[in-house]
Write a structure and sequence with these properties.
By secondary structure, the chain is mostly helical. The chain contains 13 helices and no strands. Helix 7 crosses helix 8.
Length: about 350
């Protein structure tokens, strides 16, 4: 088992790169169909996303929450768990952050870290429910995390439109205290110091998974729970721990949105960031470095698509198609390997 539990080989990047190239090629056919030049359209897309410091900052801002949710999904997957609940964990983490942001009057050096920690605790506790149900009752995590997503959405809807309503006609809370807000790095863009936190989170995830005993146990459980249990590893405990850490990472995405961008909780503020994290994790091969790169790519596609839509006849929805194609090609490789493995075992 030790030989199988190893760090991410950089050769594994070839498949995601091939998936991106194939998706762009198919996208070129669609661009030609609407009467545009693919080179011109893609040139605009990448120039507007990576062609200047301001554009890069905007791309990183869009990529930052995807880094957190991608890391959340990847961490759980390494432990053999498919966390579909990052969206709900994001919302609970966001609400915990906004509650701290509006409820206390503290110095910035205390208030901001406290709000960030609260977001991690909120996400971790929400994900731990799914981990407990999986570990103790055998309820599949895909089912219970999907259900918990809906509960989280409607629970925060009620909290924001009810006891925590800010008094305006918009379903939102009051603004958080300035001492709990993240700082902007490159105004007038909305890039905040959360990007640094995301990079630190990726490093911490790598250290936990590949440099600690706990990480070895988590990955052993992910590879073969029966063999791990036979080797003396407590599978239920590690299942709960993995889901809790995964939820804490998703909660940080909520903190980034609340403390850095909106400065208040707005009902349904997330644009499916939790679900996008699944795509980012798959493209990043469930490795922290891969997740960061995949998040930047998705952020660049989102940033450039608006300009491509504005300056050409290519609709921005094409980018959604390209993202779907990328995930299709990555998932196809996973399915092929799984089928071949089943044939070998048969």
């Amino acid at each position: 088992m030790q030989s199988r539990i190893k760090a991410f080989p950089w050769q594994e990047l070839l498949l995601p790169l091939a998936a991106v190239v194939l998706a762009l090629l198919i996208g070129s056919v669609l661009i030609l169909y609407v009467g545009e030049n693919p080179l011109t359209a893609y040139g605009i897309l990448f120039r507007e996303s990576l062609g200047s410091v301001r554009n890069i900052a905007t791309t990183l801002q869009r990529a930052t929450p995807l880094m957190f949710t991608g890391l959340a999904v990847a961490f759980a997957f390494r432990a053999g768990l498919f966390n579909i609940g990052a969206e709900g964990q994001l919302y609970l983490g966001a609400f915990a952050a906004v509650w701290v942001g509006i409820s206390f009057n503290l110095p910035r050096i205390i208030h901001l870290p406290l709000a960030i920690i609260a977001s991690m605790v909120g996400g971790a506790l929400w994900a731990s429910i799914a981990g407990f149900l999986k570990a103790k009752l055998g309820v599949h995590e895909v089912i219970n995390t999907i259900m918990l997503n809906f509960i989280a959405l409607f629970l925060t809807d009620w909290l924001v439109t009810g006891p925590f309503h800010g008094g305006s006609w918009v379903p939102e809370t009051v603004r958080i205290s300035p001492t709990a807000a993240l700082s902007r790095i490159y105004p007038p863009t909305r890039l905040t110091t959360a990007v640094y936190l995301a990079l630190v989170a990726a490093l911490v995830v790598y250290i936990i998974l590949w440099k600690t005993k706990r990480g070895y146990e988590l990955r052993a459980v992910g590879l073969n729970p029966s063999a791990a249990e036979y080797g003396g590893i407590n599978v239920p405990r590690n299942t709960i721990i993995a889901m809790a850490i995964s939820g804490a990472l998703a909660g940080l995405a909520g903190a980034e949105q609340i403390l850095g961008l909106n400065n208040r909780f707005i009902v349904r503020f997330s644009s499916d960031l939790g679900f996008m994290g699944i795509a980012v994790a798959l493209l990043g091969k469930n490795h922290p470095a891969g997740v960061i790169l995949a998040a930047v790519l998705f952020g660049a596609l989102q940033t450039g698509s608006a300009a491509m839509d504005r300056l050409t006849a290519v609709p921005r929805e094409l980018i959604t198609v390209i993202q779907g194609l990328i995930i299709f090609f990555v998932a196809a490789e996973f399915l092929i390997r799984r089928i071949l493995r089943l044939k070998e075992e048969a």
